[in-house]
Amino acid sequence: MDKHYSKVSFYRLAKTVTFCFFIVFSGASIGAEKINFSPAYIKLSDAIGATKSSQQEVAKNNLQEMANYLNGLNIAQTANKQVVFSALETAKKNPSVDNLTALSSALIKLEKYVNPVDYKSMRKQFIKRVMPTFNAMAEAVNDKDMDALQTTFRIFNRAWAKRERVVHETSMGHYGRIETALALLNVAKARTALSWDEIALQSNRLGETLRSFNNGEIIATSNSDMGLSEGITLLNTALSDYQQQNSPAGNQHLLTFIKNWPVFENEVSTRSPGLYTQVESHLPLIIAADGNTKSQVKLAQLITHLSALNPGANYTAMDAALILLREGLEALLIVIALFSAMKATQQKSGQRWIIGGAALGLVASLLMAWGLVRFLPSNLAGSTREMLEGIVGIVAVIMMLFVGLWLHSKSSVVAWSKFLQKHTASAVTAGSLLSLATLSFLAVFREGAETVLFYAGILPKIALSQFFLGIIIALLILALIAIIILKTTVKFSIPVLFKVFTWLIYFLGFKMLGVSIHALQLTGDSSIHVLDFLPTINFIGFYPTTETVVAHSVFVFIVFASISWQNKKQ
Q1: pLDDT value at position 158?
Q2: Of 379, 378, 532, 508, whose CA–CA distance to 447 is shortest?
Q3: Which of 29, 156, 188, 389 could pair covalently with 34 via S-S, beta carbons 3.0-4.6 A apart?
Q4: Residue 408, pLDDT score
């Protein structure tokens, strides 16, 4: 999907989901000196929606309102402004998708011209903050110290993620080379048959590109956007490379696909959630395995399934419903489990803390989604979202261990009787309340931003009526699930209820831990060591890598050790 389409889609989303009881924050530019283009984007997105629904007169009225707003802004008569109004006139005469796309592109250029970014200062900050981290990483490569390399690689990756915008916006040639070298370096250090020569090669290429950018050199590049069809072509090329025993070329093509995957992943996720999961699960493992025979079969299957999709077709209400159901169900189960536990014990303050945590998580996820779309290009927004999802998920798992331990401590009749005697007239302890609220917040925050971004991606290809219908269907299903859980749990004795919720929290924590580590592996923030003899089990978040197996083993050990300790204590 085009970069400008992503931006327009978000403003449209911000307006429409207000009626679905979401809290929306405007896209006004920060600072009094900035000119606010948000209303113009909203009118443009309305015109796109009307055009998609064949409502040409409505689209023309939206464009006229957009023109009226822009005329009221204090913008000097420049070439950029003239291009926008020329595109506006063309679009008003013929509000086609192509004309509206051209208008969107012109409007974005005008906004960048009117609200300029101080790239000179950003470049200085880039050199100051990023280069020391690279130098530390290069030193670890020279010393052939893998422990130091793993640490410095993560530090460099974080520094790069914070400052990469200046490279992306001023030199796409450098940006592409840096991303490629970084990805290849990550794969090189993750191989079972370690080659320090290959690691040094990628490290040197990365350093040369960084120094070239710092010196103000120019690298030509193509600014073409990649869609799903181009991505499938890359996968076919990679498969051909592997079949011809050319693993480096095959890995390079898969890395290019992964780098661009966040731009068009919503086209896959909304039409086939299972296939979306397979793509994210298998591709890093195929690269780490150098495209061996077993991996080639998996890659061929992915290509077949992706080719069967029709990315040009419009989305339906069912697509919109599946997004919310897929992303919201896990968070709902966690929140409802905590809420039911507090309701069963008649702890009203605990119920308020849990609902408050979930509400705060929703607001925070909307803010994060707005920030990702507003300040980052679409491919960076996607990869940053994956990284945040992984980090937040791991923090949530830690909280799940604490909450699970607390729930299990109340899951026997004797322990429950002692609890009632101790807290007859008082609420749950402040520490427990904070833990419950924090977990509720993290559960919603982790899934909320991804849901918003997926909706932003499908809006240009779905009628507004279908979009609303899909959300209503999903909300009704989620509400029904919540009611069933609340009604069913009332029939359980409280110790049994706490025991059920303990194991539910632990199961969701096990799955979330695996998914979070895998998300960090996708973005290169975690190493990948493949275990070919193990299967991928998406349902429980199990992936055949050393990192996942070790993390899951530690998680299971902690769970059973804490249960054993609680039982002895009771």
Answers
A1: 80
A2: 508
A3: 29
A4: 61
DSSP state at residue 315: P
CB atoms near residue 554 (< 10 Å): 11
Domain limits of the chain?
3-114, 119-214, 228-307, 317-569
pLDDT in tens, 97-106: 778 878 877 8
Concatenating the DSSP letter of every residue in 96-159 gives: -HHHHHHHHHHHHHHHHHHS---HHHHHHHHHHHHHHHHHHHHHHHHHT-HHHHHHHHHHHHHH
Token readout for 403 is: 């909450």
Interatomic CA distance for residues 177 and 227, integer angstroms: 20
pLDDT at 537: 82
Is residue 391 a contact partner of residue 520, using CB atoms and an 8 Å limit?
yes
Q: Tens of pLDDT along 470-500?
A: 889 989 998 998 888 888 876 666 667 777 7
Q: Minimal CA–CA distance to 391: which of 236, 272, 522?
A: 522
Instruction: List the one residue out of 525, 228, 262 whose CA is nearest residue 373.
Output: 262
Whether 547 and 564 have beta carbons less than 8 Å apart is answered as: no
- Nearest by Cα to 392 from 449, 317, 443: 443
Question: What single DSSP character describes residue 546?
Answer: H
Q: Enumerate residues 6+ apart whose C-beta is below 8 A from 133.
A: 152, 155, 156, 159, 160
CA–CA dist 423, 537 (Å, integer): 42
- Look at residues 565, 546, 557 and name the one whose alpha carbon lies nearest to residue 510: 557
> The whole model's pTM is what?
0.44
Rounded Cα gap, residues 533 and 518, in angstroms:
18
pLDDT tens column, 6-35 = 444 443 443 433 333 333 333 333 344 567
Other CB atoms within a 10 A radius of the CB of residue 218 amount to 10
Kind plus residue range of the DSSP H or E element containing 267: helix 247-269
